[in-house]
């Protein structure tokens, strides 16, 4: 029975993670696209949507395009803060 509960819990966690990730509109605001010095890993695709080319390994210290060091954190850690373009962030303005 414990194994069934773990499987259900893991499935719930996976579904919640997908739901959270699906909120993102790929506006790039959290990566500094509205700043003059965005993250060096920020890329814009052919549809004009922002992508991080190291997304799965993004947390930790990185550099902006000019070389300034910063710490990339989960967006949930900065939802209470303001940054240029945060008015476009679906995570800040699409809370359930």
Features:
two-stranded antiparallel ribbon, 96 residues, alpha+beta
Strand order of the largest sheet: 1-2
- How many domains in all? 1
Poorly predicted segments: none
What percent of residues are in strands?
Answer: 5-15%
Written account of the structure:
The chain has 96 residues and is of the alpha+beta class. It has one domain. Helix content is 26%, strand content 15%. It is built from 2 helices and 4 strands. The strands form 2 sheets. It has a two-stranded antiparallel sheet. A two-stranded antiparallel ribbon has the order 3-4. The chain is elongated, with a radius of gyration of 16 Å. The termini are far apart. The model has no long low-confidence stretch (mean pLDDT 91).
What layout of secondary structure does this protein have?
Layout: H1 2-22, E1 42-44, E2 50-52, E3 60-63, E4 69-72, H2 90-93
Antiparallel strand pairs: 1-2, 3-4
What's the short version?
This protein is α+β, with helices and mostly antiparallel strands and 96 residues long. 26% of the residues lie in helices and 15% in strands.
